[in-house]
Amino acid sequence: MQILRKVGILCAALAVAFCVSAQTKLSDMFPEVQTPPERIYLKVFSFVPLNEEGWVITQRSANGLILSKIGQTPEESIVIRAFFFKLPPFKTNEEFFRLFKEAGVKNINPERLRIIKNEVVTYPKEGTDCAKSHVVLEDNAAAKRVGKTGIMMQETLAIYCAHPKDKGIGISIFYSHRYYPDQRDSGFLDKSTSVFDSVEFVDLSVTGQPKKRVEKETDFIKNERYNIQFSKMASDWDKKENLTFKNIYRFINIHRKATIWIRAVKYEFKSTLKESAVSWMHNMENKYEWKNVITVGERETILDGKNAYWRYYRYKMHSSSDIYEKIYLVNINKTMYQFRISAIGINTYRETKNDFENLVHSIKFTDNAFGE
User: Could you tell me if residue 178 is inside a domain?
Assistant: First the structure.
């Protein structure tokens, strides 16, 4: 039953306040969800996010992802979590419903949270068993940024389904909103229903994952020495190869003051990815006299199914404007890969960050990415 604890409202999809300053946007730290949105595939099912500005991908894992958005105030947050999991055996619809009704509020702290509503009903989805839960919690100790007093509400709608081709695979999507009692979104039900109704199951009898279009080898840059492949950059990025300091690629934006590096270092690492990032930054501070270094955000993530870590930070050099950078680190087969963007000024960073994120999330680590 451990997997069902992960399905619980608090430990799976509870919306929380985002700890960012008023000058920092979520999109500075996380990849943005484009508008209009495209269908997102998660191996065994897919869905379409809401057609709204402001959504970002705050977490990726091997079996799902989390999309997040700030609400009307910094304390308000909206979260969509989509994931799949191993489903315990069940024989009837009643057993199926009971699994999720028990899990939904199983691990809450009664001293902090009061259950206002916990309801599970049938959710119609052709060809399989599905349930929809609606949980409303009153939070009397919610973390706040601006010091506003009073309780907050945590409301979550979620659907759970067994895969129609394999009842041992469960899928779920949560739509969760944290808000002040007088600021509930009147479109909460319509928005969550739009996401739920977009769910489509991937045919498990077909090998591979549906793609938006057929990928061609000419769409990618491939480095056989370092077993890495990624999408080609737009024409306003000038590419250099085989540079010093283990930088295998450098891209300079010819219109803006921004640079992207791809670096690979071969040796056996004994430290964590975070420790490696901290050590590297410390060396850069000393070597290039970085000043006023501030880490704005950091998180573990997944790149091409591999454990990764990113850090977003800013600093000054000499009398220059603030320099904004983000790095990703991945350690595979005794090779540390580093992907880094550096931009002078926050506006330049915001103008070029999406190109960087698209490159990073197109990366494939494989001996032969096209299976030839």
Answer: yes
State the SS3 of the chain: CHHHHHHCHHHHCCCCCCCCCCCCCHHHHCCECCCCCCCEECCCEEECCCCCCCCEEEEEECCEEEEEEECCCCCCEEEEEEEEEECCCCCCHHHHHHHHHHHHCCCCCCCCEEEEEEEEEECCCCCCCEEEEEEEEEECCCCCCCCCCCCEEEEEEEEEEEECCEEEEEEEEEEEEEECHHHCCCCHHHHHHHHHHCCEECCCCCCCCCCCCCCCHHHEEEECCCCEEEECCCCCEEEEECCCCCEEEEEEECCCCEEEEEEEEECCCCCCHHHHHHHHHHHHHHHHCEEEEEEEEEEEEEECCEEEEEEEEEEEECCCCCEEEEEEEEEECCEEEEEEEEEECHHHHHHHHHHHHHHHCCCEECCCCCCC
User: What pLDDT was estimated at residue 312?
Assistant: 96
Say if residue 231 is in the same domain as residue 270.
yes
24 plus 114 within the same structural domain: yes
Look at residue 133 and tell me if it is in a domain: yes
48-89 pLDDT, tens digit per residue, is: 999 999 999 988 887 899 999 988 877 888 999 999 999 888
At 290, list the tokens. Answer: 């970085």
* pLDDT for res 226: 85
pLDDT of residue 211: 46
- Work out how many domains the chain is built from and give that number: 2
**Does the pLDDT of residue 243 top 80, yes or no?**
no
For 4, phi then psi, to 5°, come to -70, -25
The answer to whether the beta carbons of residues 153 and 49 sit under 8 Å apart is no
pTM of the model: 0.74
Report if residue 210 sits inside a domain: no
Provide the pLDDT for residue 206.
60
Structural domain boundaries enclosing 94:
2-201
